[in-house]
Write a structure and sequence with these properties.
Structural class: alpha+beta
Radius of gyration: 32 Å
Strand order of the largest sheet: 1-6-5-4-7-3-2-8-9
Largest sheet: 9 strands, mixed
Shape: elongated
Helix content: 10-25%
Number of strands: 22
Length: 598
């Protein structure tokens, strides 16, 4: 009779594996977060019916170690490996020693992750086109297509990062008419010598030792590891689950943060011990998340998807074959929001959050990629960790992927700008710049209402424009015009030259302080001391020219600053000290201004 237990293939003279050779290292930084994200996507991909949600259940339990399948073999493995590496007490030795010591305890912590209303892992005992085989035996492979979330097949390693033994057990009851049950263990450790001709490979298996095949008769397993007839789905058991006291909160938040749209749509339900997360309870759960983690973005993205005030936009994007498919965008303004858009594809998994929107208006947004062909492309653009869209990863058509992402970002920026007011009656507070931008004094007028109908040019906005401070190459400076104002140093202005050390500028801001007199406030924040020249330009839909500056005064000293072709300078800047300048235009039409270091 074929013996059942834990065993390893030998290297037979081939490669030996180190402790960190597998894909587990991708997920070690945040193991509980990573496993939550990865196991849920597998269950969503295996959802059996559109009528019912895929249900994923997380349950942690301490089991008497006698109930763990193959516990004696597991103990022997860690004892032998500890002895083998004892001559060099490095990371590998410490791993095996810690595991062996844990196996001497009376109980073993196990995290069970079970899904229901799914197909289960099909074709148990087969290698070709078998979901069970791909999960337990292959590396870096996947046959998921269309809207399925996986691509690299590396996500299956995530749960191992939370295992003290780097060991998992997999069980399934699938919808196949035959061979519907299967059970197998996988362990991913370092190769070690157990006194045979060759050392072991790093990956071993629990099941039939001959051929490393799964067991299909589960009657000898404890009921914790078995399913009732008709309860189709897959079980994943993390042996030696390293319990974090906040693991439940982490799983709850990660489930909501990454699969909010799937939950809202009714395609996913999650149970974390006694907490049930579905479309009916999501509102309460999101509020609970905000209480135990005030930094979480769950609430703002949830509001963007559910609030009646949300603005919903849909746009068609061109697919590779020239047809059109849609993406949907939800935007909601709110002073407490973080100016970010959550990007979601496929069955409802968030890939990443896009920030860096240049707008004074706080908002939250959610983007849904709806088209099947578009989902195919963005899925192939993702790295193994599914946290970005990188056009270079889409090998079939890199140029199309680049254009798609560029068009998407342009649309997002356009829609965000569209919800930003054209002007405000009160001054705009820019969070985080309180120490850089001075507050208006009582003598300075706040931003006042502008009659845009009286302007000949259509003004794009009155918001403050922040430009890159990467200075262009030095150019030949213009000669002084007749009648150029003298500086406080006396004598006519000299030609502008790059003779002195050039100051590096961290940021600059310019904003209106008195529209009636045409006065603007310019604040320059240098990172190094030296000289700088600043050019001021108008900004509008059809305006791209220099502003006509009538006068520029340094606030701290009252000195007049030299002006040539609307270039201010030279300015003597001191590291860590803001230079504040009042700029007066030669007419009173209010413009948005941009400032550039020359």
């Amino acid at each position: 009779m074929n013996e059942i237990g834990w065993d390893f293939p030998l290297t037979n003279g081939g490669r030996e594996d180190g402790l960190n050779d597998s894909g587990i290292s991708y997920f070690q930084a945040d193991p509980v977060k990573s496993l939550t994200r990865e196991v849920i996507q597998d269950s969503l991909d295996a959802r059996h019916s559109n009528e019912l949600p895929a249900i994923v259940v997380f349950e942690q339990k301490k089991l008497n170690k006698s109930l763990i399948p193959g516990i004696k073999d597991l103990n022997n493995i860690f004892k032998s490996a500890t002895d083998f590496y004892s001559d060099n007490p490095n990371e590998t030795y410490k791993f095996f020693k810690k595991g062996y010591d844990a196996l001497q305890q009376s109980t073993v912590s196990v995290l069970a992750i079970r899904d229901r209303n799914t197909t289960g892992l099909t074709k148990v005992g087969q290698a070709k086109k078998s979901h069970f085989h791909r999960l337990t035996k292959t590396t870096g492979e996947t046959e998921k297509t269309g809207n399925s979330n996986g691509s690299f097949g590396i996500g299956k390693h995530a749960p191992f990062a939370s295992s003290l033994f780097r060991a998992m057990l997999y069980g399934t009851l699938n919808i196949d008419s035959d061979m519907s049950r299967g059970f197998q263990g996988v362990i991913k450790i370092a190769s070690y010598d157990r006194g045979e001709e060759f050392p072991t490979q790093g990956t071993g298996f629990y099941g039939h030792k001959k051929g490393f095949l799964p067991i299909t008769d589960l009657t000898n397993l404890d009921s914790f590891f078995r399913r009732e007839d008709g309860d189709y789905g897959t079980d994943k058991f993390i042996l030696g689950f390293e319990v974090n006291k906040n693991w439940e909160k982490i799983v709850i938040e990660e489930s909501v943060a990454n699969y909010m749209w799937a939950i809202i749509c009714g395609s996913l339900e999650i149970h974390v011990e006694d907490t049930v997360i579905n479309k009916d309870t999501l509102d309460i759960v999101v509020k609970q998340i905000s209480e135990f983690n005030p930094e979480s973005t769950c609430l703002e993205f949830y509001k963007s998807l559910t609030a009646s005030e949300s603005i919903v936009k849909t746009k068609e994007f061109e697919t590779e074959d020239g047809s059109k498919e849609t993406m949907k965008l939800f935007l909601l303004k709110g002073s407490e929001f973080s100016k970010r858009v959550s990007l979601i594809r496929g069955t409802g998994m968030k890939i990443y959050e896009k920030g860096h929107f240049r707008t004074p208006e706080n908002f939250a947004g959610t983007l849904i990629v709806e088209g099947k062909k578009l989902n195919h492309v963005v899925r192939k653009m993702e790295p193994p960790t599914h946290d970005d869209w990188k056009p270079g990863l889409y090998k079939e058509n890199k140029k199309y992927a680049e254009r798609l992402k560029k068009d998407l970002y342009k649309w997002l920026n356009d829609e965000v700008r569209a919800i930003t007011p054209k002007y405000e009656k009160d001054s705009i507070e820019l969070l985080g710049l309180e120490n850089i931008l001075p507050s208006l004094s009582q003598e300075e007028s706040p931003v006042q209402e502008v009659n845009l109908q009286s302007n000949r040019e259509k003004i794009k906005s009155i918001t403050i424009v922040n430009n890159s401070m990467n200075a262009p190459k030095p150019r030949k400076r213009p000669k002084s015009k007749p009648g150029t104002k003298k500086t406080s140093q006396g004598g006519p202005s000299k030609k502008l030259k790059d003779q002195n050390t050039k100051s590096q500028i961290n940021r600059m801001r310019i904003f209106c302080v008195d529209e009636n007199s045409g006065n603007y406030r310019l604040v320059v924040n240098p990172t190094t001391s030296g000289e700088a020249y600043i050019e001021v330009k108008l900004v509008g839909e059809s305006i791209s020219e220099q502003a006509q500056i009538h006068n520029a005064i340094e606030n701290q000293t009252g000195e007049t600053i030299q002006i040539q072709d609307n270039v201010l300078g030279p300015l003597n800047l001191v590291k860590g000290s803001n230079k504040i300048i009042t700029v007066t235009l030669d007419h009173l039409t209010r413009y948005s201004l941009e400032v550039l270091q020359k």
